[in-house]
Structure formats: C-alpha cells, structure tokens
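User: Show me a protein chain along with its predicted structure.
Assistant: Here is one chain, sequence first, then structure tokens.
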Amino acid sequence: MNIKIIFVDIDWTILDHNLHDWDYETIDVLKEAQKKGILVYLNTARPYDSVVHTGLFNIFTPDGVVCTNGGVTFCGDELLYANTIPEDIVRSIEKICNKHHLVLELSQNKERYFTAKPNVYVHNYFSVYAETIPPIKKYENKDVSAILLFAPMKYDEVLKKEFPKEMNYLRFDNFGVDVGYFQNTKGDAVKKVLKHLGLKKEESVSAGDSFDDVTMFKETGVSIAVGNGMDSAKENATIVAPTIGEHGLGQILKDLIR
C-alpha cells in the first residue's frame, strides 16, 4: 500500500483502561509513520478538551484531530468544520435530564463543562476513564458540538423515548452515553478530511475497537480492529490485530508502513 494517512481511535485502541496507561509501543510506531511522511489523525468520540486532559498531546503530536464522533475536525490547529446542535434541542435535553436528576457534559470546539454538580454516576464513570472533571457552568445558548450523559442502563428506555428524534443515543459504558447529533459519524469525518487533503480512500488506514468505528472502517482502504474490540468492529475490519495488551495495533502498522 501507498499509505498517506492513518486515522486512529483512542480509547481501548491506544489507551488501555485496564492499565490506565498508553500503548507506548504502538504510539512509537505512529511516530515512525510520521517520520516517513504519513499523516496521523486521531478519530475519537471524545471532545477535544477531553483529549487534552488524557495527556496524549504530551507524548504524541497528531497531524489532526477528529473529535466528538466526527462532529468537530481540526487539521493541525486549523478548524476544518464543526457541526453544532441546535439550541432548542440542547435546551430540551437539559430539561429532560434535570427532571431525572442527571448530569450532562456539554462540549464546544475546544471546551467542555458540566450542567450540574457531579453525582455518583459521574464519579463511577470517571473512576474508569480517569479524566479531569470539568467546571460547572450554565448553558448560555453557545454552540454545542457534543453531549455526554452520565446515567446507568436503567434510564435507557425512558430517555430514548423522551429525547428529540434528531439525536442518537449511543451507550458505550455502564455510566456513559454519547448523545450525538444525527449528522455526526467518524466515517463522514474521514471523507471530509480526505477531500480536504486531496487524498484517496485507497491511501488511508483506520484503526479502532468499537461500533462507532465501523463508519470509519468503511471509508478507508484498510481497517484494523484491535483484538480486544467489540465483535461489530472486528466483523467489519479488513484486519483483526492482537489485543491492546499485546500492542497489537503497533504490530500490524509496523508491517504496513515498511
């Protein structure tokens, strides 16, 4: 392959939550790819500020960042685009969650904040993902590109019925739900980045572990699912790598970029 760009997910792909640490061997391979002139873009469901607080930028400098599940994309430091959620929809979701005493995390391009004081669901979530808890602020009709809901599964059926139909309710953790605007997918972001950079699908590689990586897989020439990933990811990937604990992604990428 004449690889010119790699799109890589973060959680459970290069960030091992069992160890609360990075897959440094794979990150070293990504750095080696950059030395060979291959672009490396992060492609994550996390908002930008969340990526910052993982500390990843202290050990690795990507060429671009796709965040909020494709809702916001930066090429270098330049904002390529941002899909924002209409104010009336954000207000509606906030009202529903207040009724159920649930906390939301609202994200803008490079900022995020809570709508209420952290509760036990928030603390349970952060005990796994070990992030920095953002400040509490009032929503002031400013552009919101992503919403993270902290709630256990017992709320799912009720909230799916109450939330606006324009929003996707995507549970990814026992206490975490991405409430995404219907326009956002990682795959659409890949298409926009490739078009912006003048690159072909056949020149791209993607790597991930989850159901939300499948749209990304379909828009790249080669797709890699790590062995610890969900069945939906592995079934739709062209290559299934060993697990993150085995530095599986790094093993596959090392062969591809030779």
